[in-house]
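Here is a protein:
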Amino acid sequence: MGLAPLWRLRSSPKADVVPEPRPAGHRAEVVPATRHARVDPAGQISTPKPQERPVVQRPAPAPVTEKSAPPARAPAPASPQQTTPDPLRSARIAGLDWAGLEDEIRACRACRLCEKRRQAVPGVGDRSASWMLVGEGPGADEDRLGEPFVGQAGKLLDNMLGALGMTRAHQVFIANAVKCRPPHNRTPEADEIAACLPFLQRQIELVQPGLLIALGRPAAQALLDTGISIGAARGKRFERQGVPVVVTYHPAYLLRNPQDKGKAWEDLCFARGLVSPE
């Protein structure tokens, strides 16, 4: 009859509507409802129901418990605390006599050196000496016996003083910049020297020496409040609150470097030229 075929869609509510006639020669374009549509023998188009995709059940996340929680980061190691000078502590130490000062030194816990010591080492010698020698800090023997310079370095120091006609019991008082042994005989830190400085200052005030001799760099740092080189400071006269200061090598250094014993002897002779022992 010249009419295009009638298509009825089951699922379309407008399936009974007859399409308008097309002009002659026009070729109808049949567009299936879906690419999976089928035509039955009666000319009806059937579209299969879309297949439902299976729903994948994903397990719910496990609750976070103490065991499953991520491990907490360990706190960063604290840097060593710097010792802040305590004016009240310094003022209290400045008023102590010999007995009170040594008791304070032995009970001191102002810096970390107290944690590893066996005992503090206040000092030894003539408390009215004209020469006061200041070393670095106690070693293993000093920490065990409670007296400064009792090992091989002490024997060398006694021999050098003996050559000048002096002993630690007469004309000489010996102390250290720090009163507790640094672990493994390491060099004292600046804050450790600062924590012990009120003790050293009070010892100087009680002895009232005519001359101070710094044995090694840490001792020179404590007495002069500055970092210096021993080689550059030798043969020079320094002062601490009006008291002459001479800088020389530590006896322990001389045991490792015996070629410098002659230089240390020159330094002691230079000191004797400044203040003769009485």
Remarks:
- Residues 87-274 form a domain with the Uracil-DNA Glycosylase, subunit E fold (CATH 3.40.470.10).
- Confidence is low (pLDDT under 50) at residues 11-19, 30-35, 64-83.
- The longest strand covers residues 243-248.
